[in-house]
Design a protein that fits this description.
This protein is an alpha/beta fold. The strands form 2 sheets. Strands 1, 2, 3, 4, 6, 7, 8, 9, 10, 11 and 12 form an 11-stranded mixed beta sheet that branches. Helix 1 packs across helix 4 and helix 5 crosses helix 6.
Length: 300
C-alpha cells in the first residue's frame, strides 16, 4: 500500500499578511505546495489529504482536486473549532482551531495507512520526500515514527524569526526529546532565540531541527487523541492556546511508548514565512527549473 501525504493548509498566515499557502511562486503560477505534491508523486505517495479552512475550499478544489485528477487521489477535511472530544468545555471566545496536533486528528477517518505530514507553505526538497516514502514503506513497527531532520542553519529566514522543533538525537539516530523553540533568528555566528527566563538561547546552526516533515503510522491517532483530550481539559478556556505536534509526541517519546527515527536531509529549506521571503523562493525555483529538477510547468 502506498503511503499518504497529509498537507497542513489551514494556517492563517498572519506574519505573511495573506493566504501564503496559495501564493504563486512558480513561472506558470505554481504554489510551493504544487512542487511538494510533484515531489511526493514521483517519490511514490498514493494519496494527498489536505487539512483546510472552509473559506478556501473552492480554491483547493479548483487548484488541486481538479488539476490532479488522474495523477493522484486527492481528498480534504476541514479543521474547525468544533472538532472536539465529546463533552469538552471551551471558551466561547475561541476564534481559531487548536494547532497542528488537532489538524492531524481531524483526518482520522480519511487515513488508514502510513502517512507523511507537511506544511503547505514550506519547500522540503526532492530528497526529503524519497527519504520519507522509503521509511513509511519499509518500517513495520507500528509505534516507530520518523522526522525528516534538517540542520538549523539550512532552515532560517533572512527576514525575521521562525519557529522550529529543536531535536536531541541519541547515538542510534532516535529522538531523545524535541523542544518547540519560537522566534529563532539568524545571527552572524548561527542563531539565537529568547529563553523563558528572559535570557537568549545560542545556536551554532548545526543543530537538528524538525520542519514538521513527519512520518506516522495509524497508531498515532490514539496517542495524539489522548494528549489532545488532556490538553483541552487543561487549556480549553484559554482562547489562544494551541497544541503542536512536537509537544504532543515528546511526552510519549519520554515514556517509551513511541520511538522517533531521525532521517537527515541535506536539502535547504525555503518558504514564505514573511512576504519578503518570496523573491528568494521565486529565484530558487527558477534555478532548479533551469537545472532540470522541475519542469517549467507543473500542470500540463
Amino acid at each position: 500500500m502506498k503511503p499518504t501525504l497529509l498537507v497542513l493548509a489551514a494556517g492563517m498566515g498572519s506574519r505573511y499578511g495573506g493566504n501564503k499557502q496559495l501564493d504563486e511562486v512558480g513561472p506558470s503560477g505554481e504554489t510551493i505546495i504544487d512542487y511538494s505534491i510533484y515531489d511526493a508523486i514521483r517519490a511514490g505517495f498514493g494519496k494527498i489529504v489536505f487539512v483546510i479552512r472552509r473559506d478556501i475550499e473552492e480554491q483547493v478544489r479548483e487548484r488541486f482536486v481538479k488539476r490532479l485528477k488522474g495523477k493522484i487521489e486527492v481528498d480534504y477535511v476541514f479543521q474547525e473549532i468544533t472538532n472536539l472530544p465529546e463533552g469538552s468545555k471551551v471558551t466561547p471566545e475561541r476564534q481559531k482551531p487548536w494547532g497542528t496536533s488537532h489538524a492531524i486528528l481531524v483526518t482520522a477517518e480519511k487515513i488508514n495507512e502510513p502517512f507523511g505530514v507537511i506544511n503547505a507553505d514550506d519547500y522540503y526538497g526532492v530528497e526529503s520526500f524519497t527519504i520519507l516514502r522509503d521509511f513509511l514503506i519499509n518500517d513495520k513497527d507500528p509505534n516507530n515514527f520518523c522526522i525528516v531532520g534538517y540542520k538549523m542553519g539550512n532552515t532560517l529566514s533572512d527576514h525575521g524569526h521562525v519557529n522550529r522543533g529543536v531535536c536531541r538525537v541519541d547515538e542510534k539516530g532516535f529522538l531523545k526529546n524535541i523542544v518547540e523553540t519560537r522566534q529563532i533568528s539568524k545571527t552572524a555566528t548561527g542563531a539565537e532565540a529568547p529563553a523563558p527566563d528572559g535570557s537568549m538561547l545560542k545556536f551554532t546552526g548545526e543543530e537538528v531541527v524538525s520542519m514538521n516533515l513527519w512520518g506516522f503510522k495509524p497508531s498515532c491517532y490514539s496517542f495524539l487523541g489522548s494528549e489532545f483530550r488532556s490538553f483541552i481539559d487543561r487549556h480549553g478556556m484559554d482562547p489562544k492556546s494551541e497544541l503542536d505536534i512536537p509537544t504532543s509526541i515528546d511526552k510519549f517519546v519520554k515514556s517509551g511508548e513511541v520511538t522517533i527515527k531521525i532521517l537527515m536531509s541535506n536539502e535547504r529549506w525555503f518558504g514564505v514565512t514573511y512576504r519578503e521571503d518570496k523573491p528568494f523562493v521565486v529565484e530558487s525555483l527558477n534555478r532548479m527549473i533551469a537545472a532540470g529538477v522541475y519542469p517549467s510547468r507543473i500542470y500540463s
